[in-house]
Automatic annotation (TrEMBL):
Domain of life: Bacteria
Entry-linked InterPro entries: Pectin_lyase_fold/virulence, POMP_repeat
Species for this entry: Salinispora arenicola
Keywords assigned: Cell outer membrane, Membrane, Secreted, Signal, Transmembrane, Transmembrane helix
Transmembrane segments: 22-43
SUPFAM superfamilies linked: Pectin lyase-like (SSF51126)
GO cellular component terms attached to this protein's record: cell outer membrane; extracellular region
Ranges annotated as biased composition (Basic and acidic residues): 59-92
Protein name as catalogued: Putative outer membrane repeat protein
Chain segments carrying region Disordered: 54-102
Length: 471
């Protein structure tokens, strides 16, 4: 039997390669169900919750906006007042959560309520504040029944869903085909799976399913031998004003692993760990959009902040990617066979320990960086403290400063690859061996100095094999 447990959950947020191939991932829209409770009385026990749910009548208007409540912006000084128009986040109104059926502070009551909601086509469930729903039973790999209909779980102050430490290993939630899960003001923690290839330590969203995570915390979940310590998304997942912190994956995506459509707004992905790629986020195929967020303090083998591979179409807007550490390549971002646009963002103080691209490592991909700062990143044992380009990279109105590497303190461009700069400053970078500003290894570097590009004050020299650049 599952048991209830009252507690306050602490906030602990805190050869050469083949040339490029592309896959386009289409954007999908989604609508949900809003459900109205009629004539619900006090619900002291599980069977009463089930009876109360019979009075909930499904309707068909659009689900309330997940980002309707006004919240703080990302703390990057260079874009504090920026509007994220690309993601349509306008923060209109106060975003009142839909009222639903109260669920007593008992894990068995929550399980019964979800089962009944699935049977009746969906529901809005109001979980108890200052309550931990402590899960002890493995239900097909999760602590709660799989979500197969539109279900909203509303929490409150200190509302937590947690796997009991002594229980068998299982994730907290699975969303299956037709499922549309919304979490509001909830903490999901303690999920753990260890079977080889089992993904999503906290939440698994399968293809054909959707999830919206709003004002919530996904913390301290583990996928020991799989992907997605906090969340694995194969469907459509939107994360708004939430934190994904201190999760662990034995393979990729310590915080989040996605192959579908992932949208992150005004959220924090911090202090997650993966053995392979993407300590914070691993996107392998599909589409990823990150706006007004922070990706910080994550660790992995490659792409400690973000690992982007296999035809991803990616956008990063008004976001700080800082203090991430990769044991090999791409401290901030590692990109391969994908397309990425970075706008009004900061890549700072990231580290590639033994490889290249302290801030960004782009391999067989296309990257455009606009109105951004690439600062104080390090690849002391390798190349490209700020950026390694092994594909096609363009910088517009961007500053590359204070980065360090063995070769190419600011920028490193490999053979047969193209690095293009427009109105960009490459200043005060350091190379231990050569090419303090830019090291070009038989590729093509276009400075476009007429647009205002400046390469100056780098050590021990500004450029190696870059036409139009004073050494």
């Amino acid at each position: 039997m599952n048991h209830q447990h009252h507690e306050h959950e602490p906030d602990r947020s805190g050869g050469r390669r083949a040339r490029s191939r592309w896959w386009a991932a289409g954007l999908a829209g989604m609508t949900g169900l809003a459900l109205t409770a009629v004539g619900v009385a006090v619900l002291p026990a599980t069977d009463v919750v089930a009876r109360a749910l019979t009075s909930v009548r499904p309707e068909t208007p659009d689900r309330p906006s997940a980002d309707g409540e006004r919240g703080h912006r990302d703390d990057g000084k260079h874009h504090d007042k920026a509007k994220d128009k690309s993601t349509g986040d306008k923060d209109k109104g106060k975003g009142k959560k839909p009222k639903g059926v109260p669920v007593p502070c008992k894990a068995d009551a929550l399980i019964a309520a979800i089962n009944h909601a699935n049977a009746r086509g969906g529901a809005v469930l109001d979980l108890a504040p200052k309550c931990t729903y402590l899960l002890t039973t493995n239900i097909d790999g999760a602590g709660l029944p799989a979500i197969t209909t539109p279900i909203t779980l509303n929490g409150g102050k200190h509302t937590t869903i947690k796997r009991a430490a002594a229980a068998d290993q299982f994730r907290i939630l699975t969303v299956e085909v037709g499922g549309d899960l919304t979490l509001h003001k909830l903490t999901i923690t303690g999920g753990q799976i260890s079977d080889d290839g089992s993904n999503g330590g906290g939440i698994l969203v399968n293809a054909g399913g959707a999830a919206t995570i709003n004002h919530s915390k996904i913390i301290r979940n583990i996928a020991s031998n799989g992907d997605g310590g906090g969340i694995t998304n194969h469907g459509i997942t939107t994360i708004v004003k939430s934190t994904v912190n201190r999760n662990t994956a034995g393979l990729s995506g310590g915080g989040i692993y996605t192959t579908g459509l992932l949208t992150i707004k005004k959220s924090h992905v911090e202090a997650n760990n993966a053995s392979s790629g993407g300590g914070g986020i691993a996107s392998v195929g599909g589409t990823v959009q990150v706006g007004h967020s922070t990706i910080s303090g994550n660790q992995s083998n490659q792409g400690a902040g973000m690992f982007i591979d296999d035809g991803v179409i990616g956008t990063i807007l008004d976001t700080r990617i800082t203090r991430n550490t990769a044991s090999v390549d791409g401290g901030g971002i590692f990109l391969n066979f994908s397309q990425l646009a970075v706008r009004r963002s900061i890549l700072a103080a990231n580290t590639a320990v033994s490889g290249g691209g302290g801030g960004l490592h782009s391999e067989d991909g296309s990257v455009t960086v606009t109105d951004s700062i690439i600062k104080a990143n390090t690849a002391s044992a390798g190349t490209g403290g700020g950026v390694v380009n092994l594909g096609d990279t363009t910088l517009f109105n961007t500053k590359v400063t204070g980065n360090t590497a063995n070769r190419g303190g600011g920028l490193f461009n490999d053979d047969d690859d193209v690095l293009t700069l427009f109105n960009t400053a490459v200043v005060d970078n350091l190379a231990i061996a050569n090419g303090g500003g830019i090291f070009n290894d038989e590729g093509t570097v276009e400075l476009n100095t007429a647009t205002g590009t400046v390469v100056a004050k780098n050590s021990p020299n500004n450029c190696v094999d870059v036409p139009g650049c004073a050494g």
